[in-house]
Every structure is written in structure tokens, then in C-alpha cells.
Amino acid sequence: MKLGIGIIRAQRPESTVQRTIDSLRASFPEGTMPICVFEEPECEPHPQKCASISRPNSLGFGDSSFDASPEGKFGNFQNWIQAARDMCALASLNDRDKPILLVEDDAMFAPNLMPVLERDLWPSPRCGCVSLYCPNMTNYSHRYSGLNLTKVESPQKLAKSGNLVGALALLFPVEVLRQLVYHPSVAAWPGSHSQSERPDTKPWERKAVDTWVGRTLVQMGYTIWHYSPSMIMHYEPERGKSNSTMGHSAASKSRVRQARSFVGMKPRDLTKVFQKRTEKYDVTPIDLQSAGSVHGRRPVEIPGSDHGQHAVSQP
After folding, report:
1. Cα separation of 199 and 183, whole Å?
2. Averaged pLDDT, 89-116
3. pLDDT value for 230
4. If DSSP codes are grouped into helix, strand and coil, which group holds residue 35?
């Protein structure tokens, strides 16, 4: 199996992208994973040889229509969307069916992940996304060592719970990703919970791409899965000190930004750590009601959506 890998990079107090690239190369075989780094204009050069695109540029055929800051920055949300569009465009020229992995530049990957992914993908015919990151959150199942359904809701009013948490490493079927990043809710996305209450948020200031991905996929009728224990972790150069590009607290001080458990950096056969599912589960977001995540609530739309109502949220 081949992967297309895109890294979303922004300026940090301490650059971490080289560690991310090194861990990716230890986790996936050489030659199966062309890497492209999509970086904001103020980022310093990195020594690892791989393709890189500095914003506000795109690959030329990725259909960029975003407003950049005066300095040329796309910001978290827009850079992620444009990176996904660029990667889909690359896939259409080369391997149309290979999955696309979108990675943030402070993710540290456990070694030898490819055999597990080759065995497990995809867990459901309606699987829209697999997160390799498992945060320490109550709506994330940790009972099964391997792939677990992620309980994601899609309320009309932005909320702080029931979300996909963490866009550190999200793996998509290419056709699903293409549908996702051209969804009409891209233009209407207001940003994070706090940004949604401020009408003066600039396009390049919008955040919370993880929340948008989760809610939009559920609206489209797809399911989201995650591995537990986590296959990756946030890299923190100095424990307890924030290295975030968006003002988040240090990973070691935040439940959202740390894995509940991490499989570790020691090379070993991870097919023996992550259990194999014996069947493919044909589930839809509606099935999550029976799991108790959204009982007694009515379906609503997210801003900008023209798709059917698949998820439920409002009481």
C-alpha cells in the first residue's frame, strides 16, 4: 500500500518538522510515501529533502481561492484545506486510489505502522477518516486495542464536546477527502468555539479544522475511527512549555493535547499490539445513537451544509 503524505507547517517557537519527517520515515517504508510540506511563509528552511510549498502558493492545479494575510499566511484552517486539495490533485495525476495522510508538524509517529494499516484499512464501507491519534477524552473509546468508532456529533451551534479532537494525523480515502474539502461548509466555517462568537474573525485566523472535519464527515454520512492506544503523540521540545502555533497550552498540561496512552517509540511488531477486527462494520453515523452518544436529540445542519441530516444533536 502506498500513502500520499502532506505535512501542514507553521512557525513555532522551536521547529519540530524535522522530527516529524524522521519519525514518518521510520514508520513507513522508504519509497512508498512521497512527502510534501505545506508551510507558512515565515517558516525557516528544514534540512530534510522533500517537496515543499510555501504559502500563499499552491501546486498550481489545486484551485486555491483563499484570502491570505498581508504577510501571505493562510492560517491553520485554510492551509489544511488547501494542502488536502493539493494532495488530491497530486493523487489524480498519479495513484488515484492511495490513501492520503495529512499530518501536523509536531506529530511523532511510532515505528512500523504500515503493516497495521495495510491489514486494517478500511474498517467500514462508509469510513470517512481514520485518526492515528487518540486523545485523553471521554468520547473516545479505549476499550478495544485497535480500531474504535469515534463518537462525533454535528450540532448547529458550535459546542466544546462531541467533536473529532486532534488533526495530528488523519488518514482518508482519496475520494472521500476530495468530497470533504470541496464541501460548501468550507466557506461558512466560523472557526473555533470562541471564534464563532466573534464576527470580526479574519479568514486566515480560523481554527478548529479537526472539529470541522468530524462534523462535516458525519453530515455527509461517513463514520470516523481512531486507533487506541495512540499511534502518535504531540512532540514537546521542553516539558511543560507550550510550542503551539495557536496559543494552546503545553501538550503535557492538556488532556486534549496528550494521548491517553501511546504505543511508544520502541520498534516492534505492532500487529501484535493492535488487534485485528474479524469483520468490516457497515455502520453509519445514525448507528451511534444505539451506542448512547446522541440519544433523544433531533437532527440539525451545520453552517453551509446542503447535505442530508445524518447526525443528531439538539435536545
Report:
1. 22
2. 87
3. 93
4. strand
Q: In angstroms, rounded to a whole number, what is the distance separating the alpha carbons of residues 170 and 148?
A: 14
What is the length of the chain?
315
> What's the gap between Cα 257 and its chain centre?
13
| Single-letter amino acid code for the residue at 210 | D
The pTM of the full predicted model, rounded to 2 decimals, is 0.80
Domain range spanning residue 68? 4-314
pLDDT, one tens digit per residue, over 191-221 is 665 666 567 777 678 878 998 899 899 989 9
CA-based nearest residue to 23, from 131, 100, 132: 132
Domain count, the chain: 1
Helix (H) or strand (E) holding 6: strand 4-9
First to last CA, the chain: 43
Burial class (CB in 10 A: 0-12, 13-18, 19+), 295: exposed
Assign residue 69 a region: left if phi > 0, alpha if psi is -120 to 50, beta otherwise? beta
Alpha carbon distance 297, 166 (integer Å): 25
Cα atoms in the 13 Å half-sphere on the side-chain side of 243: 20
Contacts of 138 (CB under 8 A, 6+ apart): none
In CATH, what number is assigned to the domain containing residue 262? 3.90.550
Phi/psi for 195 (5° steps) reads -65, -30
- The angle at the Cα of 88, spanning 82 to 90, to the nearest 5 degrees, equals 105
